[in-house]
Each structure stands twice: as C-alpha cells, then as structure tokens.
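User: I'll paste a sequence; please echo it back and then give the predicted structure.

Assistant: Echoing your sequence first, then the prediction.
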Amino acid sequence: MISVDFFRNKENKLVRFRLSGHAGYAESGADIVCAAATTAAMTAVNGLTDIAAIRLTPEVSPGYIDCALPEGLSERERRDADVLLESMVLTFLNLAEQYAAYISIQEQ
C-alpha cells in the first residue's frame, strides 16, 4: 500500500508531503496505481522547482518521496505552491477513492 502524508501549517497551508511504499496493484513496471502516484507527486515537485522557481531538496528513492517547502516563501511563491500542491492533493484524493485498497492518505 502507498501511504501518503500531507503536513499543513497553522494556516492550513500544505508545507510538506511524503509518499512511501508500493501499491501492489500489479507487478513492478505494470502497476498503474504506483505510476499514477509517482506522476502526481513528481509533477508537483517539478512544478515547484521548474515553474514556481522554489528551491527544494526533495528526497526521492524507489518507493519514497519526501518534499518540504522552505520557510520564508514570497507571496507569489506561496500562491504558486498552493495551486500546485492543492491540485496534487485532489489527484491523490481521487486516486484513493478509486483505489482505496492501495492508497492511504493522512493529513497532519
């Protein structure tokens, strides 16, 4: 199962997300749930770094992605991060609804 953790600050803004595990929906290389989860997370990471120009140091390894926003974002960076990250959250909520046996989501 893929475990997805979303971490929010006191203003309910997403400041970090972490994925760990493998879905187990199909064999490695054919697992559409793992592929969808990885794509959603890495699209957010790439959008944050390449589109919003936010300096990140995500930790990425097989079965694991951990990405935290730096403190002190400008208003524009925060707004861009909110759009990208909340879009990612919606994608994960949709995936978890469709593949509940393979994805678990927690908000902290």
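Residues 16 and 68 are 4 Å apart (CA to CA). The chain has two helices and five strands.
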